[in-house]
Amino acid sequence: MRQLSTVALLAVLAFSEGALANAELAAAKQCMQCHKVKEDFAGPSFHKIAASLKGKRDAESRMMATIRRGTDGSGGPHWGAAKMPDTSERPLVSPAEARQLARWILTQ
Fold it and tell me: Is the pLDDT of residue 68 over 80?
């Protein structure tokens, strides 16, 4: 039983570290200047974005395109008048970083 508890604790810690790394990446790429996880801010919450893409086969690729190129470069989605800026106004995001961020956002 003790061994199972240790395995469970390690799994929780690994998940927590992964979530923390994703949040740190989102902050480093300036995502958190306009988005919050649970509530709308200048942009929609990650929770709302995930809900709008739930069940869509191309959700991850759409998210990656928007994360890398902004709203205009990816063709949407648009959330009211606000648009996600392109790379001229924020740090570059590699394909691997975009995939990591998209997967994290889609789990919110």
Answer: yes
The CA distance from 81 to 23, in Å, is: 26
Q: Do 43 and 79 form a contact (C-beta atoms < 8 A)?
A: yes
| Sign of the Cα pseudo-torsion (75, 79, 85, 87, in order) | negative
Backbone angles phi, psi at 88, to 5 degrees: -70, -15
The crossing angle, in degrees rounded to 10, of helices 2-28 and 95-106 is 120
Output the pTM of the full model: 0.78
Which residues have C-beta within 8 Å of that of residue 93, sequence separation ≥ 6?
29, 67, 68, 87, 101
For residue 98, the SS3 value is helix
Chain segment 37-47, per-residue pLDDT in tens:
999 999 999 99
DSSP notation for 54-67: TT-TTHHHHHHHHH
